[in-house]
User: Fold these one by one.
Assistant:
Number 1:
Amino acid sequence: NAPSSSTGGLPNLAISANAGGVNPSATLNLTAGNVVASGGIVSLVQCTGFNMNPGPFIQGGQINGDALMNLSLGDVTSGDVFEAISARDGAGLIDGNALPNVTTIGNLNVQTDIVNDVINTADLSGTTLVPGGTITGDASSRTVVNGNIVATSGTGEFAVLNNDVRALAAGGTIGGAATVFVGANGISTGTVFQPIVNDRNGSVGGDATVTVAVTNDSKVGTDTIFTVLHPNGRIGGQAHEEFSARNGPRWRNVTFAIHR
């Protein structure tokens, strides 16, 4: 716990079981007042795989329980990125739930990108496909900002990813639900706004849900990609998207769809 924090660098909070590591569980909790960081803010809970250079691919590790992240902050100002990422790509395992949760009393004001992702993708070792990660429970990216979400010149990405922009031939596995929730007074991005569940070639045992709730205005610089994407994937429950706001959004190019 901290009353407030200001730094000219990049605070990097991390719990890692990367490259074959093993943790019984992982919980990253931060409660603070106002936070100012000119170099960006990064928070990670991960058990990912890596390509060594030189050397082989070392597959992801395992967290034998829940992987939790709870960031409860006042007003946040970042001169670069704000990232909250729970990752286990490259055959990593979370034997429980993966739940990155970001809450602010004030604004989340960032100069470049805002990212709150659960990453559970496959990977590549050269040209060899390494299987996706496994989460036996639920995967949920939750962001609640009582002020405004502002990514001045960058992207706002809030996602559960069993696959990614590489569209690999295999995806990750989530035993429970895949959920994205974004709530704010207002949202403004310089480029892309992307609330998404990507289950291409993957598996979600429960529902896949994307919800965005904005009290006032939302303004997106370029593209809005508001999707549940699962070509050749499996969703055991329902696929659902919902957007609510008092004022209509100011979006340019919009993809609002469930892609099978």
Number 2:
Amino acid sequence: GFANPGELLQVQAELEAREQDLFKAEILLKEQKNNFLTFLNIPADQVIEWEYGSENLPEPEFLKPFSIEDCRPYRIAKLRHEGAERLRDAAQSMTGPDISVFGQYGFAGVDKNSVEARNEFLRGSYPRAFVGIRVQWELGSDWRTEEYRNHQYSYEQEGLRFSRLIRELNHRKELLEKKIQLSYQQSKSLQRQRQFRRQIVNELNRNYQLGRIEIRNLIEVMNGSFATDIEFLRSYGEYFVSIAEYLAFRDELILQPE
């Protein structure tokens, strides 16, 4: 290949800049790893084997169907709503009179002679029974009515919160699923673009070796290829982050031991 005056120095300067970027990236990677270990409460001196997966993108169809009724916020809000309903019903039952049924059944001895009366009692000669209804009403019980109204208000508030939460969960579920689909499509597009740019770099490199193109043309194409590599790796990570967010939404990011 051939180069114009000053182009080789430009290439060397570009190489030094790329090496500086690499050093900065290594420092950032080390900081992120340390932050991750701190978050997991792992000692800093413990040796960790970091495994980096392949660049194959799993299709988003592997995510199984999901209902918001399985979400933890949904279950919590439902329990609160049902609890408020039970408190309201209990308060309502206290606003009326307290009615109860009671009864008694037994035997008696009526003879004047104590011995004979005892025998009559033991034989059950004179059974005695009665049934009654007890009605108890507290005077000045308006406070129970006010208590019922307060519980009714709490029940209605919990119902509104529950309804709003259902709408929010449905919206978030739809948003997260859409984010996964878009992240996957973007990553696949950048993956194809990456392959095309690498093919172009190989082709121009052969032409440069044969002296058909200038070095600056090869540098421009290589810079474009490097930029595409970075964009692909970023989208690759964002795709898995979107999957992690969706699994966290479903309470499946960290599986509980069976």
Number 3:
Amino acid sequence: LSDGPLVNCEFAGYLLLNDKMEAVDTVRSSDAIRNLYFHDLAINAKGERLVNLRKDTYLDLRDYSNDYRDTAVHCNVDYLQILDPVSDTIIFNWNPLEHIHANLFQFKQILKERAWGIGNSDVIEWTRLTSAQFDYDGNIIYDMKKIGLGKISREYGNVIWQITYKDIPLVAGKDTIRWYNPHDFNYLWETDTSVVYSAYSNGIEESERGQEELACGVVFEMNKTSLAVKLLKVIWPQKKYVGSGQGKISYRDWETE
């Protein structure tokens, strides 16, 4: 963290606090401030800062809406950027429209479940990215509420693997793995052959799939070579409910929140 006075604090996407909860640094993009929205933050051992920037754009959605007038619909798209720890310059920029297959975007569901903050606007949250973190190897893992979980190559930007809503429920040996409207996807630890992750599932209402699925935390293991998935643990909150779009899981092998 840098020493000295804060710079452009009013434009900061994040404030970094010390152990006394005092602001000691800011994290912001070198892009223009207008139409940028910071949603998540991760900092690796090099001090590089991974941020989610929500940008306004206009998309041709006629193939999704079947409405010939929808040639330019107001949408939010979540970009991922890595910022240099010294200069704040952009050293990695990822546009999901260039890498996520168009058939995975769920127009009707996105339109139906507008976030509270934009409920009275015309904006469609096209990607609805809910978290992005550095993985064990320096690449990037992400989750998108209406698409699923995945991993991005930092070098090329391609999707290395993904588990989308079309794959759920996922049958893995004797286990059946489920998450719906996922949030808070995290790398936990690795072994020589596998990686352990956690994700928070908001669940779904009965009307969506014919069977209600309650909110829960899911801890799973992925083989580094085959990408085969194994369920390790499902963590149920004390109160049984279906989430509305938020949620977080903090997990270690000896304790869970």
